[in-house]
Amino acid sequence: xxxxxxxxxxxxxxxxxxxxxxxxxxxxxxxxxxxxxxxxxxxxxxxxxxxxxxxxxxxxxxxxxxxxxxxxxxxxxxxxxxxxxxxxxxxxxxxxxxxxxxxxxxxxxxxxxxxxxxxxxxxxxxxxxxxxxxxxxxxxxxxxxxxxxxxxxxxxxxxxxxxxxxxxxxxxxxxxxxxxxxxxxxxxxxxxxxxxxxxxxxxxxxxxxxxxxxxxxxxxxxxxxxxxxxxxxxxxxxxxxxxxxxxxxxxxxxxxxxxxxxxxxxxxxxxxxxxxxxxxxxxxxxxxxxxxxxxxxxxxxx
Length: 302
Known about the structure:
The protein has 14 helices and no strands. The two termini are 23 Å apart. Helix 4 (56-69) packs parallel to helix 7 (102-122) and helix 7 runs parallel beside helix 11 (193-209). With 302 residues, it is mostly helical. It has one domain (8-298).
């Protein structure tokens, strides 16, 4: 038997130890430095698996282990989760602006999006946790297609460096379409799965801080979304539009022959992701119904 004070101290300490381990896995600033280099060095399949599945193990652990078992500790660490989530959202988005490697840019965008997941968890509300889980699902779909696009750039063109690219929409229209779709989904275009997830988390955060002195903090969520739109649209403009780049020899590509658009197999793989991103963006209930049954256990707990 432990007294209330002992139990509070114990839960706070254990929650903190587990929490910091899990946010390294997500990753959350300032424990994020391993992720961009890991993505750059990993093959395309490895990046898809790392971003689409493995990063979610961190947030999954926070929800299933920390929140379920250490509810008092969760309340004590609530504002730490919220502040670290906001810092990751803004820092990840800001860092994307300065990247020249497409793959590294998408890696930093993952830090920003996982920061939003932590923000949703930090709200400690049913809707916040529900849309944090939905954001994990949405991010897995979106980053899969983004890393496929980046991998195909390196495989077919021979470089992922944005300053060397330009005007590729005319040379590789199918590849350009998938890049545009992935970017639009990731920046939260309405009608796609990313919008539903991000809107739900920001709504949960607004519910949490409404009519409190901290209500101004909602500005950080808006800033993160604006930065995200900025770096994706800027990268898209420099990569796909304008005059065709003269810095790449399209007649003698990586494999010796002319640079070609994506194959039918590559098209099919990314088309599946597009269908899922659009379907769950229009009808998110088909996913959230599986989440609601679980998160209902948190109703009125915190």
